[in-house]
Design brief:
The structure is a homodimer of 193-residue chains. With 193 residues, chain A is mainly alpha-helical. Chain A is built from eight helices and three strands. Chain A has helices at 13-21, 28-37, 47-59, 83-93, 105-110, 118-141, 152-175, 177-180, and strands at residues 63-68, 76-81, 100-103. In chain A, strands 1-2 form a two-stranded antiparallel ribbon. Chain A starts with 12 loop residues before the first helix and ends in a 13-residue tail after the last helix. At the A-B interface, α1, α4, β3, α5 and α6 of A face α1, α4, β3, α5 and α6 of B. The structure holds a DNA duplex (30 and 30 nucleotides).
Amino acid sequence: MPAALADDVAMDVKTVCLGMLTDGPASGYDMKKCFESTFGHFFPAGYGSIYPALATLARNGLVEFEEVPQEGKPDRKVYNITDAGRAELDKALSNPTPTHKVRSEFLAMMCFAHLMTDEQINEVIDNKLTELDSFLKLLDELPICQADGSNKGTQFVAGFGRFVASSLKRYINENRDMLTQSDTKDLKIAVGN
Amino acid sequence: MPAALADDVAMDVKTVCLGMLTDGPASGYDMKKCFESTFGHFFPAGYGSIYPALATLARNGLVEFEEVPQEGKPDRKVYNITDAGRAELDKALSNPTPTHKVRSEFLAMMCFAHLMTDEQINEVIDNKLTELDSFLKLLDELPICQADGSNKGTQFVAGFGRFVASSLKRYINENRDMLTQSDTKDLKIAVGN
DNA sequence: GATGCATACTATCAGTTTGATATATAAATG
DNA sequence: CATTTATATATCAAACTGATAGTATGCATC
């Protein structure tokens, strides 16, 4: 067998912060906005994970920061990636099997649809469809945060999001009857591998 | 405005365990198998969350358990849902906006594709496609864990999984060139809302 | 002119979840 | 005979979530 990877670097919040910094200096606040606008849709992170991540990165010498005083506003801690940080990022990007996890209260709930009223089910479905529409609309307005926003990777990912959201909409619209009607209905969309 | 929900019950591991118990008594080990076979694909949970969840549910009187001795094997703690537990589950199922979250190291990594070699990118993509194939194959063998496995909800959710996995495969296959070729290529799949 | 809200910035904390590990026995696999 | 798999429990460090807190300015709204 091939030797196990010496020191596995996960694609976690720390690593994504490192990646953002390859595009230029930024504060924790800047990164939070970036997570909100784009990354957060497939890799959520709040202050509770960003600030500790930056603190750990700084402690390990993977980033440096300088405190920039501002007039009328709190000081900014502006972070920069170091050479050690770049090396660590490279390690993380060499993991050949990154995960793609879903945690869906929605699907878990639908498993218990037989314990719900039709009214409850319809409300949940309608809300989910509305949410998907908002998401698609948001993607159309494309608020890319990275300076190099037009890079192939982010285009691929945005297209991915658009495609998945549209697919979900279609599946839900065409199969929602299954959940509320008591007579036997089959899946309307059959899929070949 | 409508009064805020008195005591928000989240659709968390505790609640899913309650839901599983509406189908009959089960041990933590049984539930883990159920998470592994079906639920885990869209709502993962390991021993580290299942056992504490059951302990909390028992402490709050939402489930009861009896220890069943076995020959040659460790004792089983067999759990049953109580009336209070059923009421709690009903509360959780009345939440009209259950979440659907994605956490994708894969997409995060693809955002930094410009920092990777074509070889690295292709390996990641190939692995992801293989993973999706395994998932689709697994769904075709349908190891439903609930006695009432043929209920509409689980059928809807299984179809959902199949549809999403096939969509992902298609998107990745048709757009992977974007990531590795240096000349400008556009998305091959355009989607209307 | 006051009250509240949005923006800009930092940071912490309780509760949950993750993923690995520990313990113990038996059966099957190589 | 050694290893792995299955049956069952449980715990722990590290990470993450979502909310909250503090502090200062400006901008509406009442």
